[in-house]
């Protein structure tokens, strides 16, 4: 395969958006007749790279060569002209047109009296046949097909345009195992016909089942290109999250393991907590004075589980007891009254209220708990404000400033203060250290340890595994919307051993591709 | 500039000038000036020799402002949540129809009790209609525009059903006094309206209601995760708006002791929205300003009276109103003001230099 000429060569691609460098000097090479997977966590730059290739974004630096020839792709039409077509996660077809019309749209066979429908449908049938979809009647409306088959129709449509490059952006996220297998058959079929396929998926099992080669991106940077057969899963995960195996191995648990008298009733105990499509039935216990880390890749269900605990999303099943008393946490207001607090990973949209001042943002949680009729007395407001601005080291320490003018780290500190002021028994921090500078990060980690010492049950979620290992007493490992392990932290627990747990789970027991609905 | 505390009366003026409703005040003054130009005695207020009450055009304006003031205050709260209440005009006519029917039925021209019952029942039904809006918006999850549009259409129909399609009149002295009486020489209706406005203003600003309404108006998702009860807050806002519209309906019908089912409160929701916007509350929701809405309401009343006083023909009235309001919105627009500032800097003539002070202050 590698002997042939690459069909797509992207060299030194950089794209900047205001304030962020989305892609920084990224290389990507695609050969005909291969399935090449783009790997990376959310925000690694996969979508940006695809959009550069399809002409949606203009590139700032670097060059794109198609069959050795430098091209400027300044629009999707350009990309299609170069033989690149894309099938997105959300199918872009007209559900009210027939299957045949969708396949042939813009390429209808024309006769002397306009479109020759008979010939058009015959051509559509032929295109479908090539992908093993000959049983479909092209005259039926598209809406009669399942989403999975619609996706296959979209692929045959791209083949009508004689595409040499097919981009499949997370095509499997809403398919079940049988449908995934059907899609993979079509993909292998096209690969054997010499089509180059760029594939994106979050499901490791699928990546190993279908792809020949991998390119890993992290934080907009090119990490490396590997043959799938030569890279094992834990090595791949390490590359995605950015710790090489040697350095993972050297990281040890720093947090001294304390003895928790676990016969004592847990502060929070959930049984069979679940929500369709985000978390499968999960049991969870949180004890006072304990830091519980949630580990797992993005999309593994770690954030979703946290949202269920707080009632940010309403659980479908499960019962929750706090200090032995049954509670129904169905919305955040109830959670807060039961002394559960949750700081969202999405600081900008679900955390701060941009146009309110630092002071107002700080007291909002306490005030919500008290209700509108009992405003916090001015003295208490000032006490809270001065306490947390000083304790958490918010800079600038000006409570009247709109919070939008603060840096990310300081906004995060204000949010932490908002939740601490509600005196929570259970505090869930989802990615509290993401995107903030080193100093602020250390401050927040220190606070987490101090809180646990004061008897708060802390749930700590972070993409940075070493941070989770360093802070947690116990680590809940999530994968594919399930809790796959609960590890009591100790000297033998390292970021690497957690990666191994994630990578190996399910491989030995069940190697069929896992769909989202499994 | 914001951090320095204004000192004394000069500081207070400086602060008002910075507010968006400053331009509303300017517009009121200009309209009055136009009227004075036509009739130099326009602003004269005299004491009526028969009963010692104040009479004059200004008093008339204040009396006319009362209903708009009420619905503008309610609208202000709803707009702050990020919504809109198109039903206030219709709730006015329902409140009017209910009270007139009750009074006509009781047929007790001097009974304070009958007036009291009429007012209480009218307000209860207004609050109920506000609650319907609230349920449609917060529980059912319809868009505020559609929810309140439904109640707006249903409300006027309901009023016609209540009166059997008639313009019901009634005689009841205590009820009539609400809109036509005087307290220490000032119209009772204006005193009531101001007191209610102050009460609502104190309620939202002294409690945490104002902060919470702003929070859900600015960012509903973040506010929910902060533990705010969005549903309860929306209900509060829409019920308040309904109740205030009920008060406005009582004011409007009590002044003539007749409910006109097709004209009472007709299109007043638009006046209320204008008053709120003139007062500096953004229709996108968030920060609100009740003082500003009150000034906007008085401006609308002044404008209405001016149109009549200048003898603008009734067919041209809406166009005249539109011109004044467009001019005001242009004055408030940062962009337009920036444009004017630039032009002045380019040619600093004498007249422009004096005007510049007010603009840049």
Fold and architecture overview:
The complex is a heterodimer of chains A (518) and B (361). Chain A has 518 residues and is α/β, with parallel strands linked by helices. Chain A folds into 2 domains: 8-247, Rossmann fold; 252-493, 3-Layer(aba) Sandwich (Rossmann fold), CATH 3.40.50. Chain A has helices spanning 46-53, 76-81, 99-104, 117-130, 147-160, 177-192, 204-210, 233-241, 245-250, 302-310, 332-337, 347-350, 358-370, 378-391, 408-420, 438-453, 465-471, 495-504; strands at 8-17, 20-30, 35-39, 61-66, 69-71, 84-87, 110-111, 114-115, 165-169, 196-200, 213-218, 221-227, 268-275, 279-286, 291-295, 317-322, 325-327, 340-343, 426-430, 457-461, 474-479, 482-488. Chain A has a 6-stranded mixed beta sheet, sandwiched between helices. In chain A, strands 18-19-20-15-21-22 form a 6-stranded mixed beta sheet, sandwiched between helices. In chain A, strands 2-1-4-5 form a 4-stranded antiparallel beta sheet, with helices on one face. In chain A, strand 13 (268-275) and strand 14 form a beta hairpin. The relative contact order of chain A is 0.11. In chain B, helix 3 packs parallel to helix 8 (188-206) and helix 4 (88-106) runs parallel beside helix 6 (144-163). In chain B, strands 1-2 form a two-stranded antiparallel ribbon. Chain B has a two-stranded antiparallel sheet with strand order 3-4. The radius of gyration of chain B is 22 Å and the shape is globular. Residues 1-6 and 348-361 of chain B have low confidence and may be disordered. Chain B has 16 helices and 4 strands. The longest helix of chain B is centred in the middle third of the chain and has 29 residues, at 112-140. Chain B has helices spanning 8-18, 22-38, 57-80, 88-106, 112-140, 144-163, 173-180, 188-206, 209-218, 220-225, 230-256, 268-278, 290-310, 317-332, 334-346, 350-360, and strands spanning 46-47, 54-55, 182-183, 186-187. With 361 residues, chain B is mainly alpha-helical. Chain B folds into 2 domains: 10-310, ABC transporter involved in vitamin B12 uptake, BtuC; 312-361, no CATH class. Chains A and B meet through helix 11 and helix 13 of A and helix 9 and helix 10 of B.
């Amino acid at each position: 395969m590698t002997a042939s000429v690459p069909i797509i060569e992207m060299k030194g691609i950089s794209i900047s958006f205001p304030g962020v460098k989305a892609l920084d000097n990224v290389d990507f090479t695609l050969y005909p007749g291969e399935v090449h997977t783009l790997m990376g966590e959310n925000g690694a730059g996969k979508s940006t790279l695809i959009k550069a290739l399809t002409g949606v974004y203009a590139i700032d630096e670097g060059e794109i060569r198609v069959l050795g020839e430098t091209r400027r792709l300044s629009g999707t039409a350009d990309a299609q002209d170069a033989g690149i077509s894309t099938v997105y996660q959300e199918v872009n077809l007209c559900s009210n047109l027939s299957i045949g019309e969708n396949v042939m749209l813009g390429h209808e066979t024309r006769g002397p009296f306009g479109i020759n429908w008979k010939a058009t449908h015959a051509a559509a049938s032929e295109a479908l046949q090539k992908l093993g979809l000959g049983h479909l009647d092209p005259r039926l409306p598209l809406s009669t097909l399942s989403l999975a088959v619609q996706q296959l129709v979209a692929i045959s449509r791209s083949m009508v345009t004689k595409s040499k490059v097919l981009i499949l952006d997370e095509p499997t996220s809403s398919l079940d195992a049988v449908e995934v297998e059907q899609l993979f058959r079509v993909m292998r079929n096209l690969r054997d016909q010499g089509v180059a396929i760029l594939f994106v998926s979050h499901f490791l099992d699928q990546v190993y089942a279908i792809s020949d080669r991998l390119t890993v991106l992290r934080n907009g940077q090119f990490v490396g290109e590997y043959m799938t057969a030569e890279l094992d899963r834990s090595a791949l995960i390490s590359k995605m999250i950015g710790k090489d195996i040697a350095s993972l191995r050297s990281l040890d648990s720093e947090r001294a393991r304390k003895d928790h008298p676990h016969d004592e009733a847990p502060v929070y105990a959930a049984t069979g907590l679940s929500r369709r499509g985000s978390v499968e039935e999960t049991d969870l216990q949180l004890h006072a004075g304990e830091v519980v880390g949630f580990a797992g890749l993005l999309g593994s269900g770690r954030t979703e589980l946290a949202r269920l605990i707080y009632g940010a999303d309403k659980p479908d099943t499960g019962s929750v007891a706090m200090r032995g008393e049954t509670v129904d946490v169905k919305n955040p207001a109830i959670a807060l009254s039961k002394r559960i607090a949750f700081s969202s990973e999405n600081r900008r949209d679900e955390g701060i209220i941009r146009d309110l001042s630092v002071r107002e943002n700080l007291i909002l949680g306490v005030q919500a708990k008290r209700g509108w009729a009992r405003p916090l007395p001015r003295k208490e407001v000032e006490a809270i404000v001065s306490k947390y601005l000083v304790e958490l080291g918010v800079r600038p320490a000006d409570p009247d400033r709109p919070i939008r003018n603060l840096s990310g780290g300081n906004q995060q500190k204000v949010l932490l203060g908002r939740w601490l002021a509600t005196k929570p028994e259970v505090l869930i921090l989802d990615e509290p250290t993401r995107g903030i500078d080193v100093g602020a990060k250390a401050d927040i980690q220190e606070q987490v340890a101090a809180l646990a010492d004061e008897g708060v049950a802390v749930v700590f979620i972070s993409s940075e595994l070493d941070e989770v290992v360093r802070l947690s007493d116990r680590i809940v490992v999530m994968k594919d919307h399930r809790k796959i392990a609960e590890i009591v932290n100790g000297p033998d627990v390292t970021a690497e051993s957690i990666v191994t747990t994630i990578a190996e789970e399910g491989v030995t027991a069940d190697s069929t591709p896992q769909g989202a609905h499994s | 500039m914001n951090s320095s505390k204004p000192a004394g009366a000069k500081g207070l003026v400086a602060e008002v000038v910075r507010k968006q409703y400053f331009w509303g005040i300017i517009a009121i003054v200009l309209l009055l000036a136009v009227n004075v130009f036509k009739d130099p005695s326009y602003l004269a207020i005299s004491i009526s020799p028969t009963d010692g009450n104040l009479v004059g055009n200004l008093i008339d304006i204040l009396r006319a402002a009362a209903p708009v003031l009420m619905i503008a205050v309610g609208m202000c709260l709803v707009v702050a949540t990020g919504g809109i209440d198109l039903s206030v005009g219709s709730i006015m006519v329902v409140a009017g129809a209910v009270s007139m029917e009750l009074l006509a039925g009781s047929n007790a021209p001097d009974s304070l009790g009958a007036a009291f019952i009429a007012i209480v029942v009218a307000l209860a039904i207004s609050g109920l209609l506000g609650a319907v809006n609230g349920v449609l918006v917060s529980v059912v999850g319809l868009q505020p525009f559609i929810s309140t549009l439904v109640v707006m259409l249903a409300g006027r129909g309901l009023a016609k059903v209540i009166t059997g399609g008639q313009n019901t009149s009634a005689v009841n002295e205590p009820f009539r006094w609400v809109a036509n009486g005087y307290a220490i020489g000032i119209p009772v209706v204006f005193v009531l309206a101001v007191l209610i406005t102050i009460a609502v203003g104190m309620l939202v600003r002294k409690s945490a209601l104002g902060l919470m309404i702003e929070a859900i108006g600015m960012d509903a998702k973040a506010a929910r995760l902060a533990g705010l009860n969005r549903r309860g807050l929306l209900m509060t806002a829409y019920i308040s708006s309904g109740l205030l519209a009920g008060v406005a309906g009582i004011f409007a019908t009590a002044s003539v002791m007749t409910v006109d089912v097709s004209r009472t409160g007709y299109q007043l929701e638009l006046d209320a929205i204008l008053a709120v916007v003139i007062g500096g509350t953004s229709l996108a929701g968030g920060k609100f300003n009740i003082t500003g809405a009150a000034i906007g309401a008085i401006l609308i009343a002044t404008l209405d009276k001016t149109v009549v006083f200048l003898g603008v023909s009734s067919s041209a009235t809406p166009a005249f109103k539109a011109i004044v309001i467009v001019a005001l919105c242009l004055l408030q627009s940062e962009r337009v003001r920036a444009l004017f500032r630039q032009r002045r800097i380019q040619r600093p003539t004498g007249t422009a230099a004096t005007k510049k002070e007010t603009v840049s202050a």
